[in-house]
Amino acid sequence: FDKTDTTVGDKTYVISGSDGDSTSLGVRIFDESTVQWVHPVVLGTKPRACKGHSAVLLNKDRILIIKKGASPDDCTWFLELDTQYVRDQKTMCGGNTEVVAWSKGMRGNVEKPVVISGPSGVGKGTLIAKLMKEYPSLFGFSVSHTTRAPRGMEKDGVHYHFTEKSVMEKEIKDGKFLEHASVHGNLYGTSVEAVEVVADEGKRCILDIDVQGARSVRRSPLKAIFIFIRPPSMEDLEKRLWARGTETEEQISKRLENAKAELEQGETSGLFDHSLKNDNLEECYQRLKEHLGLDRSVGAASRPVSGGIDLPVDHSVSKLDNKIIIDCGTPELEKASKNLILDVSCLNGGAPGRTRGLDLYAIDSFSDGLKEGR
Ligand SMILES: Nc1nc2c(ncn2[C@@H]2O[C@H](COP(=O)(O)OP(=O)(O)O)[C@@H](O)[C@H]2O)c(=O)[nH]1
Ligand SMILES: Nc1ncnc2c1ncn2[C@@H]1O[C@H](COP(=O)(O)OP(=O)(O)O)[C@@H](O)[C@H]1O
């Protein structure tokens, strides 16, 4: 029977593979203070049920789940109990509802995503296109959802996911978005999936979002670099919008009106790590590359290690500081037992997407030293 109990304060989190729907792991909470069972709101993608699992409490705010006999890309998960994301979601639910959130554990890290903001027409799209063209294997674009109509050359799923307002609002409610904002009268948003698909390819994600979106991402579990692009002057900005020729006069006025507020916030809020003036395009592009560490020799941006973990079907676990020791069974005589150590000291990201930075080592119990595994 696949079930674990993890107690934090008055609450015991019971995770089991045979609760309610049997296709995914279920969560129930027993509250000692009220002597009652609670069914929490469960956010994020739930892990599929499995032959068995181990649960290890980390930092008193999340439970690491190690599944038995699961495929390498599906064996480590985190149930977040009291992380910033969960606390924010609890507040949104009115504060009295129990909320927990699933996040999938991934090995290795990818470089921090890059958030690029700035007023409409400043040249964000142009700069991003240059970057993606020069470094197609290093960068991937976060494809946002929007309720605005596609422009002539824009393709659904490439430039944006063009969406109905009601559909998008429902998905926002379901917790599928990292951030969303109303910009120039339309709804825009970055789905959790949009960022994860890029990271899963081992690429650094670029987000082209407005200042409100940047502020939301700052508060989210996604650790990113924030870059603001500003025009040489409002006159230049207006000229560029007219030259692009994709908006009506009315839409251009709205964009210029919003630009004033965005420029003010971009310059003064302390939200951005860097602010770049896009006067001469080539010069601005070179400075952008410097901030991303691409001015050094080609390939300076290290390629990330990511992917799953190959764990044995059966094991038991114990915890020592930031290391989870996975005991893979009694060694046969004269054979070293191949125990594994899962290092959780460098975790980042988190619900409702992926928790990255898990590291795995093999230890040979017959030798003294640690030996690096696969
Ligand atoms: N918050 C947020 N803003 C977005 C998103 N996608 C695009 N934007 C912003 O929405 C604004 C309008 O974008 P767009 O319609 O492509 O027009 P353009 O900026 O004039 O090219 C820009 O400031 C974008 O940075 C998103 O997913 N979230
Ligand atoms: N440094 C620059 N100097 C002059 N024109 C520029 C510069 N950068 C971009 N542009 C032009 O300005 C227009 C708006 O650029 P775009 O990349 O679409 O802006 P954004 O994505 O910020 O709305 C485009 O026609 C583009 O070719």
CATH top level label of the largest domain: Alpha Beta
Q: Flag low-confidence runs.
A: 298-304, 366-374
Instruction: Give the mean pLDDT.
Output: 89
The total beta strand count reads 24
CATH superfamily of the largest domain: P-loop containing nucleotide triphosphate hydrolases
Number of helices: 8
Integer tally of domains = 2
Shape: elongated
- Hetero groups bound? guanosine-5'-diphosphate, adenosine-5'-diphosphate
CATH fold topology of the largest domain: Rossmann fold
- Determine the N-to-C terminus distance: 31 Å
Q: Could you describe the largest sheet, including whether it forms a barrel?
A: 11 strands, mixed
Radius of gyration: 24 Å
SSE-based structural type: alpha/beta
Strand content: 25-35%
InterPro entries: Gal_Oxase/kelch_b-propeller, GK/Ca_channel_bsu, Guanylate_kin-like_dom, Guanylate_kinase, Guanylate_kinase_CS, Kelch-typ_b-propeller, P-loop_NTPase
EC number: 2.7.4.8
GO cellular component, one term: cytosol
Domain Guanylate kinase-like: 111-293
